[in-house]
What does this fold into?
Amino acid sequence: MSPESTGQNEHYLRAFRRGFRTWRGDRPFWAGLFTMMGGLPIAYLPYANMHLGNITLAMSTTAGAGSLIIGVLLITLGLTMWFHHIVRVFAGIAAILLALISIPVANIGGFLIGFLFALLGGALSVSWAPGEPAEPEPDFPDAGARDASSQDTGTGTREPGPDLHKAGVSQGRPEQNDTTVEVDAGRHRAG
It folds into this structure.
């Protein structure tokens, strides 16, 4: 064991943070979080009482059960986005539809707070796409170019292709490669 080993002396919070970052990057994390944050005010506000001094303001409506169902469904869809991200498009569309339905049913969509969060979460879920892993680079960077620039002759030997003949010539700007001397006041020799 060397004192330089990385696994032993790593703090557990740093390891947890790195693991959480990896977990968060593999799924529509923010979409699920915003969808759940949208479901909370939609489900809670119809059952809440606000106290202003000695005055109690009840925000409950006749559609309290509908608000609770919409809020619980939005929280469930947010968790689905996190833990079963294969169905993220369905969950996103369902979250957008439930957010729109919450406007007439659940106190103007949880006083527009829940509506906006659920709408944003659904849109993020629909638009999220998993990242593609980076292609591993070959050990020898010229190996891929060498194989692509040679041609098989059918006899088992490979002959250099046309790209190999141009390898020494820079394909940059032509004025860099031009070695002719300008004579006759800039006119071409043939003209």
In short: The beta strands are 49-52, 55-58, 150-152, 158-160. Residues 171 and 177 are 9 Å apart (CA to CA). The radius of gyration is 32 Å. The chain has a mean pLDDT of 78.
